[in-house]
Amino acid sequence: MKNAISNSLISMKNNSFTILSAIALLLIGSCKETPPEQAKTQETIKPPNIVFILSDDQAWTDYGFMGHEHIETPNLDKLANESLTFTRGYVPTSLCAPSLASIITGVYPRTHGVLANDRVLPGDVKDKGGKNHWRTSWRPKNYATVIDNFNKLKTTLPKLLKEKGYLSFQTGKWWLGNHTNGGFDDGMTHGDPERGGRHGDYGLEIGREGMDTLYRYIDVAMEKEKPFFMWYAPFLPHSPHNPPDSLLQKYLPKAPTEYVAKYWAMCEWFDITCGQLMDYIEDKGETENTLFVYVCDNGWVQNETNSAYNEISKRSPYDYGLRTPIMYKWKGKITPYLDTLSLTSSLDMVPTVLSLLNMELPQELDGINILNKNALMERDALFGEIYAHDFNTIEGSLYYRMAMTHPYKLILPNETNKPNEKVQLFNIYEDPYEQKDISLEHPEIVENLKQKIESSWVERPQDN
Question: Which CATH number among 3.30.930.10, 3.40.50.720, 3.40.720.10, 3.90.550.10 corresponds to the domain 2-31+47-372?
Answer without folding.
Answer: 3.40.720.10
